[in-house]
Design brief:
mainly alpha, 161 residues, 6 helices, single chain
């Protein structure tokens, strides 16, 4: 019963975050922060012990934060993206978060490549990367809503793991 509630919360988190990121380029705190709290509380109930349930969520949150901290500091993604992966970690734990990160990286790379092709900047960007020149965020006309990659990564993780 509680496991189904966790999946329902995850589904709502992903649907709302996908929509708001595409529409407004924002992932809302009013969605991610309650999901983190609910992940803690519900996993306390589901875990074999209170400590195991707590650690399950804490490890998931920490992994989500660690994975996206450097991209956030470098300006590649927003804080909402970090909190979304942390919320996924709180609800689903570290293993799910790890696989979500792998899928989101692959999906994000594909989305970025399509964006660069659309902006006719793919070859230019590849050359800059190969010659170790910094690629500035302001060189791009558009960015990708990375919440889309995170959401699709979580969906693929649920399907395949």
């Amino acid at each position: 019963m509680v496991e189904k509630l966790i999946l329902l919360i995850l589904g709502l988190l992903l649907i709302i975050s996908f929509y708001t990121d595409v529409k407004d380029r924002k992932i809302l705190n009013v969605i991610t922060l309650p999901a983190i709290v609910l992940g803690f509380l519900l996993n306390l109930i589901v875990g074999d012990t209170i400590l195991s349930g707590l650690l399950f969520s804490v490890y998931g949150i920490m992994l989500g934060f660690i994975i996206l901290f450097i991209p956030y500091i470098m300006g590649g993604i927003g804080a909402g993206d970090v909190k979304l992966l942390m919320a996924i970690g709180a609800l689903m734990g570290p293993r799910f978060t790890f696989y979500t990160a792998i899928y989101m990286g692959l999906i994000g790379g594909v989305l970025a490549a399509f964006q660069l092709i659309k902006a006719k900047r793919l070859i230019f960007t590849i050359k800059k990367i190969l010659y170790l020149n910094k690629v500035n965020k302001d060189e791009f006309e558009n960015t990708i809503p990375y919440g889309v990659a995170i959401t699709l990564g979580a969906v693929l993780t649920y399907i395949f793991i």
